[in-house]
Write a sequence for this structure.
């Protein structure tokens, strides 16, 4: 099959301009966005206060994924990332399927973010048509990504800095409110009035599905490693810091939310985000407007990161001769502009879904993008098993090792398969497999046709 350097060499041309600090912020930028600020509302609707358990379980799966991915990324930094690893350690068709599934997932997730932004803007401008915000914000972020990778990294760094600072302030405010106004009896009432887990384990498990969508984005650091100035050190540093911060921000923030406000109020139809609802309830002047601004910044940040990642994945497909060659061309500024243009398609899909189904646009977009996320994460765990076996057979030394193999890898793989099966029996996620299985079958057919065509060309 040859050395992995062959795959790395075909993906040259991108500019290595991302620092370790920017790499960390890119991972946070993708993972702290709509999934936390708006998706948590839907998770609370299923799990109630037990949403804390849902996000803790999802966090453990994300932790296992990042460990597996960090090992492979430090060994082989490249923009193709886990798509390239699947190609090399599983089979070329596996790399094809992973790249396209993940690309479709991220493209649709971009649409999820922009529909959420349109929802948030209603807080201030309820009479303005949502498509105006979709066009305005989408155009701005596409422009940033088109300018240069350095511009993208700088914008994402400050977006993520604002988000992190805002969540820290929210946590401080929430804790101070609990200490000044709250009592043990009030906290108990909010947590247990109506049941800690009102829909039982099935509700908690459904909350885990939404949490996976919320954590989607932490794997972006592996893709960004291909444009890092010092990829090995950047990945190690970012891996150690990113997950700890994510788990603290998610679990601590969600715990405070369900302790401060009855969960039934958090999921009311007129509620845009549990974070905004909490600020409205505690009565801090202008806090809800400030937090709504932060929520918009968070969504823009996640959207910015996802546009970047989808573009690089399509670039990798083109360089592997699995997409039109024009999509692999890099401009003088180091940006694969054609791949960026195609990867912006999710915005158009989201706009159409939003126009025809404004009330259900967000859960529909989640359901459609979930298949690619789950398929890609499952592929990472499976690839890591083969990666470790190959490393041991060839007696190669790992540059970075995460303890717990093979138990962590197998547990992660089993969890992802279980979640994938669960989506079929959950009405809100029924479209995940309904869309995903035919899409996967279509990709397999395309790969077989491409392989037959390539073989015919070689035999001429």
């Amino acid at each position: 099959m040859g050395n992995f350097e062959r795959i790395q060499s075909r993906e040259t041309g991108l500019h290595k301009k991302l620092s370790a600090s920017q790499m960390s912020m890119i991972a946070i930028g993708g993972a702290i966005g709509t999934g936390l600020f708006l998706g948590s509302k839907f998770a609370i609707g299923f799990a109630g206060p037990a949403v804390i358990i849902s996000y803790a379980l999802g966090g453990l799966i994300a932790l296992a994924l990042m460990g597996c991915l960090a090992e492979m990324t430090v060994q082989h930094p490249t923009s193709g990332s886990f798509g390239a690893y699947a190609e090399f350690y599983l089979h070329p068709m596996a790399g094809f399927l992973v790249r396209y599934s993940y690309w479709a997932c991220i493209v649709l997730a971009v649409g999820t973010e922009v529909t959420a932004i349109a929802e948030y803007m209603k807080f201030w401008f309820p009479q303005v048509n949502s498509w105006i915000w979709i066009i305005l914000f989408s155009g701005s972020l596409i422009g940033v990504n088109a300018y240069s990778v350095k511009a993208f990294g700088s914008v994402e760094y400050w977006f993520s800095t604002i988000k992190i600072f805002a969540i820290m302030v929210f946590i401080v405010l929430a804790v101070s409110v609990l200490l000044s106004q709250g009592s043990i009896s009030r906290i108990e009432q909010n947590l247990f009035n109506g049941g800690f887990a009102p829909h039982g384990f099935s509700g908690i498990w459904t909350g885990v599905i939404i949490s996976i969508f919320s954590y989607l984005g932490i794997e972006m650091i592996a893709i960004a490693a291909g444009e890092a100035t010092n990829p090995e050190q950047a990945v190690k540093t970012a891996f150690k810091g990113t997950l700890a911060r994510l788990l603290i921000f998610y679990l601590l923030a969600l715990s405070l939310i369900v302790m401060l406000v009855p969960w039934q109020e958090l999921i009311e139809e007129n509620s845009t985000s549990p974070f905004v609802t909490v600020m409205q309830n505690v009565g801090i002047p202008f806090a809800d407007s400030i937090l709504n601004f932060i929520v918009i910044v968070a969504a823009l940040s996640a959207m910015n990161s996802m546009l970047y990642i989808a573009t690089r994945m399509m670039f990798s497909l083109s360089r592997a001769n699995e997409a039109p060659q024009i999509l692999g061309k890099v401009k003088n500024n180091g940006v694969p502009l054609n791949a960026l243009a195609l990867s912006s398609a999710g915005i158009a899909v989201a706009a159409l879904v939003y126009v025809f189904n404004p009330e259900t646009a967000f859960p529909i977009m989640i359901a459609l993008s979930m298949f690619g996320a789950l398929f890609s994460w499952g592929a990472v765990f499976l690839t890591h098993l083969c990666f470790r076996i190959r490393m041991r057979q060839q007696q190669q030394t790992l540059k970075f090792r995460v303890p717990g193999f093979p138990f962590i890898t197998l547990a992660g793989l089993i969890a992802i398969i279980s979640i994938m099966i669960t989506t079929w029996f959950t009405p809100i996620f029924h479209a995940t497999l309904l869309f995903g299985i035919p899409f996967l079958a279509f990709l397999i057919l395309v790969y077989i046709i491409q392989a037959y065509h390539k073989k015919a060309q070689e035999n001429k």
Notes: The radius of gyration is 21 Å. The chain has a mean pLDDT of 81.
